Amino acid sequence: MVTFQAHDGPVYSMVSTDRHLLSAGDGEVKAWLWAEILKKGCKELWRRQPPYRTSLEVPEINALLLVPKENSLILAGGDCQLHTMDLETGTFTRALWGHTDYIHCLALRERSPEVLSGGEDGAVRLWDLRTAKEVQTIEVYKHEECSRPHNGRWIGCLATDSDWMVCGGGPALTLWHLRSSTPTTIFPMRAPQKHVTFYQDLILSAGQGRCVNQWQLSGELKAQVPGSSPGLLSLSLNQQPAAPECKVLTAAGNSCRVDVFTNLGYRAFSLSF
Amino acid sequence: MELQLKGSVIVLTLNSTNNGVTSGWEEGKYYSEEAEVDRRDPGRDYELYKYTCQELQRLMAEIQDLKSRGGKDAAVEIEDRRIQSCVHFMILKKLNRLAHIRLKKGRDQTHEAKQKVDAYHLQLQNLLYEVMHLQKEITKCLEFKSKHEEIDLVSLEEFYKEAPPDISKAEVTMGDPHQQTLARLDWELEQRKRLAEKYRECLSNKEKILKEIEVKKEYLSSLQPRLNSIMQASLPVQEYLFMPFDQAHKQYETARHLPPPLYVLFVQTTAYGQACAHMKSSQPPRQDKTLSVAIEGSVDEAKALFKPPEDSQDDESDSDAEEEQTTKRRRPTLGVQLDDKRKEMLKRHPLSVMLDLKCKDDSVLHLTFYYLMNLNIMTVKAKVTTATELITPISAGDLLSPDSVLSCLYPGDHGKKTPNPANQYQFDKVGILTLRDYVLDLGHPYLWVQKLGGLHFPKEQPQHTVIADHSLSASHMETTMKLLKTRVQSRLALHKQFASLEHGIVPVTSDCQYLFPAKVVSRLVKWVSIAHEDYTELHFTKDIVEAGLAGDTNLYYMALVERGTESDACSSPSSGKGCHSQDVKYRTLLPLCSPCTHLGGIESCDSSQLSWHLIGQGFLLEPPRCCLWCCHPAPALAAKLQAAVVLNPGYSSIPPVFQLCLNWKGEKTNNNDDNIRAMESEVNVCYKELCGPRPSHQLLTNQLQRLCVLLDVYLETESHDDSVEGPKEFPQEKMCLRLFRGPSRMKPFKYNHPQGFFSHR
C-alpha cells in the first residue's frame, strides 16, 4: 500500500484521467502521475488554485468533474462558483456563478455539453458550457412532494442520465424529468443521501446509515446491502469497458474501511486503513 | 415241690456221706451252702458232675430200651429208672448252685484286689508330681541373677591397681570370685560417693557466679538512664549545630530490623531525600524537606521473628494443641483452617516504612510501605492530606481514595495482581483466587513499589529467586517520586474542580479564558461519577469499549450539558435582570439594513455583542445582525448533551475521552450525526489546545467548557425549519464565517481567539 500526504486538510474529491490522478480538498487541485504512484513515488505534478474573491477563508473544493470532449476540468465548492480549467494549458477559462451557497456536487450530461450542479442553497442548476450561461434552475425544496424542512434544503448528491436526473440531500431522493422539470419518483428514504448513481436500470444511493440502497426507477426499494461504516459518503463503480471482469462497486464512509462489492448483492470484503 | 426239695437234700447228704466227706451237718445245727462250698473240692464236684451225666445217659438209654421192647413188667422197671434219674437231676441242680456261689466268691475277690491296686497307683502319681516341682525349684534357684551384675565395674586390672589394699584384699579375693566381686562393688560405691561430693561443690560454685553476674547487670542497667540523660542534655546542642546525629542514629538502629526490601527502600528514599535537600540548600539542609522517611511498627515483634526456631515450634505445637482442643470442642470446618492458613500466608512484617511526600501547596502524600513476608512482595497504602480542609464532592469519591489514588502510576500498573509469579502457586494451595480481594487490607502491590524496594520479578521465570537490589531501587527513585507528586497534584486539582462542577459551574482560570468566547449559554447541569459497568452499558460508548479504552481501572463520569430550558432564556443563571415579565424570554436575530441604529432602544445587550457588531462591519461576508428581545413565546425544546467521560488514572498526561449523545429532535450520536463526531474529535483529539499552562491541570474543565461552546455552535447553526412559524429556537449569537462546509456539512467549531469568530478546522 502506498500512502502519501496530498493536502493538509481533508480530500473531498478525486478524479482520474488516463495518466493523471487529480485530487482536491482545501482550495487547491493537485495532479499526480499514475505511473509514479504505481512506482511508489509521490511527486506532485502540478497544483492550481482557482481565482477566489475572498482571502479570509480559503474555500474548499467539493466536486471535480472531467469534461473529456473539451479536455477540461470543472471545479466547484465553497465559493459558490463553477470554475472551468483547461487541462492542456492549466489555465482557468471561465467561472459560472449563480449559486447562493456552496456547491456540493456536479454531474455531466453526456450528449449535450451541459453540466448540472447542486448546492447548499437547495437549487439544482443546469449550465450550458458553450455559452457559459445558466439554462435551467430547479429549486427542489420548493416542491412539496420532496421537501423536508427539518433536514434543510441542501442538495448533497446528483446524478444524470439523458433526460433524467436524480438528486437528494436535505429534500428526499427524487427522480426528475429535466425537460419538463417535474419530479416523477420520490424514493421513500428518511436519511439524507450523500451519493447517488445510475447503474443499468437501477439507482444506487448511499448516505446516513450502513446500507447501500438499490432502487427501481419506479421507486421501489430493491435491496439494502449493509456495509461496515455507520455512514457512507461515496460510492464508486468501476465500469471500464476494457476490463469487464473487474466490475466492482466500492463504498466509503466515515470509518476506516472501504467496502468492496463484487456482486451487488453482498459485501465481499473490506479494505481497512 | 417241698417234698421233692427235701428228698433231694437227703439224697445229697446220702451221696456225700457215701463219698466219705465230713459234712458240717453233724457239727453245726444250721445248713449253709456257702460254708459247704469252702469245704468241698471243686475238682471232685466236676468228677461228680461227669458221673451224674453218664448215669443219666445210661438211664435214659435203658428207659428207651425198655419202652421199645414193651413188656408187662416194663412199666415197673421204667418207674424205677425214673426215680433214679430224678435223683440224678437233684444232684445236678445242687452242683449248679454250688458253681454259682463259687463264681460270686471269685468275683468279690477280684474286685477287692483291683481296688487295692488303684490306691497304690494314685499314691505313685502324687509322688511323681512332687518330684517334678522340686526339680523346677532347683533350676529356678540355679538361674537367679543378682542386681550387681548390671553395674558397670572397673576392669579387674584397674581395680587391683587403684583400689586401696583394705578393700581389694588381694590375698583373699584372688582365688575366690565371690569375694572378688564383693570387693569390687565396695570400691565402686566408694568412688561414686566421691563424685557426688564433687557435683555438689560445682553447683554451689555456679550459684556464686550467677549472683556475681546479677550484680554486674544491675550496675549496667543503672548506667543506661544516666547515659540517656546525657544524650537528652546534648540534644539542644546538636540541634543548635544542625547535627541530627541522634535521630538519624535511632532510625538506622531500627532500620537494622527491617526486612531487606524495606531496608533498600528506606536507604534509597532517605538518600534521595537528602540529595534533594542538598540540591536546594541555600538554607541549612533538612529545613525544607519535601520528603521525609520514618519507620513504624514494633521493633520487638520484628526481633521476635529472628528468635531461634525452637520457640516458634513450641508456639506452633501449643497452637496445634489448642487447635486440637478446639476441634474437640466445636469442630471447626475446613474453611476455618483454610482461613488461618491464608492469614498466615498474607502476614505482614511488623515494621513498615512511612514516606511523606510534600507538594508545593502543602498537601502531603503519606505512603506506608509494607512487606508481605511469605509472599515476598511489597505493598503500599496511600493517604492524602491537604493543608486546608476539603469539601468532598460526591463525584470525587474515588479521586483521593487510598484504593485508587495511585492506580496506574505507570501504564497498566493497577496494583491488583501480585507481581511475584511464584505467588500463584502459593495461592493455589490455600485457595486464594487472586490477591485482588485482599488488596484493601494489605495495600496495593504496584510494580513500582517492588522496584523501589529493589525487587525485580521477571515475567517468564516463575521460580526465580528474588533478592533485594539497591541499584534497581535507585534507578527508579527519581521518576517515581516525580510521578507521585504530579499524581497527587493533579488529583487535588481535580478534587477542587469537581466541587464546582457538581454545582454546575465550570471553573475556567483566567489564563485559559482566551480559549472560549465570553458568552457561553449552554450550561453544565450535572456531573456525576458512574460505575464502569454502567459506562459499558451505555449505547453510545460502544466504540470506546471495543477499542479497549474502557478498562476497569479508569474513573467514569457522566456530564450533562443543557441548553434551552427556562432558566437558559436569561443570559446567565445568576442574573435575572434581562427578564422583566414572563413573556419577555426569547431572543432572536434580525437582519438589519443599517447597522446599530436600533441599539439604543434595546434593553440589554452585552459587550460581546457590541464588539461583534464592530468586527462584523469590518470584514464579515454576511450582513451584520443585531440581537433583539422578542416577545413571542416559542416552545423551547431543551437540548441535552450527555457526555460519558473516561478519566484515565494517569490524568492529566493522558487526556480524558468523551463520548457524546445529544437529545434534541431525536437522539444524535457519532453514529448518525457527523457533527457529533466532529465535536468528539474537537475535545478528544484536539485536547492539546485545551491543556492550558503546564502541568495542564485545567484540561478536564477546559474540555467541558469547550463542550458547552460546541453545543452552542451546534444548536445555533442548525438549519432553520422555514415551514414552522416563529423565530428560531436557538438564535445565532456566535459569529461564524460559514455555517456549513464540505460534503459532510461540518459546522464551524473552531474558535479564533482575538477576533472571536468561529471557523472550520
UniProtKB/TrEMBL annotation, chain A:
Its name, as the record gives it, is: THO complex subunit 6 homolog isoform X4
| Annotated WD repeat ranges | 96-137
What is the protein's species of origin?
Answer: Balaenoptera acutorostrata
Where does the source fall among the domains of life?
Eukaryota
Q: Which family does it belong to?
A: Belongs to the WD repeat THOC6 family.
Q: Enumerate the UniProt keywords alphabetically.
A: Repeat, WD repeat
Set out the biological process GO terms recorded for this chain's protein: mRNA export from nucleus
Q: Which gene encodes it?
A: THOC6
Q: Name one GO cellular component term.
A: THO complex
Among Pfam families, the record links this protein to: WD40
Automatic annotation (TrEMBL), chain B:
Q: Which GO terms describe its biological process?
A: mRNA export from nucleus
The transmembrane residues are none
Cellular component GO terms held in the UniProt record = THO complex part of transcription export complex
Q: What is this protein called?
A: THO complex subunit 5 homolog isoform X2
Write out the entry's keywords from A to Z: Nucleus
Q: Where is the composition biased (Acidic residues)?
A: 311-324
Which terms does the record give in the GO molecular function aspect?
mRNA binding
The answer to whether UniProt assigns keyword Nucleus to this entry is yes
Species whose genome carries this gene: Balaenoptera acutorostrata (Common minke whale)
Record's keyword annotation contains Nucleus:
yes
Q: Which InterPro entries match?
A: THO_Thoc5 (IPR019163)
**Record family assignment:** Belongs to the THOC5 family.
Q: Where in or outside the cell is it found?
A: Nucleus
User: Which region ranges are annotated with the description Disordered?
Assistant: 303-341
